[in-house]
Amino acid sequence: MSKSRQRYYVVWQGRETGVFDTWDACRAQVIGAEGARYKSFATRDEAEEAFRQGPPPMSARKAPVARKQKDNLPADPPSWRNDTVLPLPNEVVAQAIAVDAACSGNPGKMEYQGICLQTGAQLFHYGPVFGTNNIGEFLAIVHALAHLAQKGDKQTIVYSDSRNAMLWIKAGRCRTKLASTEKTAELFDVIARAEKWLAMHPEHNEVRKWQTDLWGEIPADFGRK
Question: How confident is the model over 126-146, as a mean pLDDT?
């Protein structure tokens, strides 16, 4: 498999500003940072010129266009869309929430978050609590689905890079082997609420698998690998 082409990332507003050579470096400056503004470019010259000119007016930003994902895998390397602030392949539907979890040890301190693919904004975050990565991935999906249901949004999809969590969502159960103890009481209360929500909402927004091997790390990744 050939590698994806190099991208360059401009951060106009974030923890640090400037031009960054990798998405990981850019993500560290913008994800979770209030009011962050950033965008990817195909060449360093384009990125440096965009940084000098400053961010475009908010009213001038293009509205993302959702595209249907084909059943067959996209060609490698993917072509990159230019209608979003996040670096997304054309095959990725922009009207979506990306979710991911991180765990220091497994089990250990677990947390999860959801990121809007259209704006790059962090929509929610939970933790850290004692748990496992799979539990975090499961809860992150349910949190995103509940978030969309509360808004009455039936169109936005949810991306997850966890096949196990997606199977648990389909089953409506968190099939963890983590023991229910005093230490995990808070977490298991959240799990019970998530399972109850799934039982009460059998029809919910679509959940799709993020193809990490083709598209790189999911934008909600905590960058701790």
Answer: 97
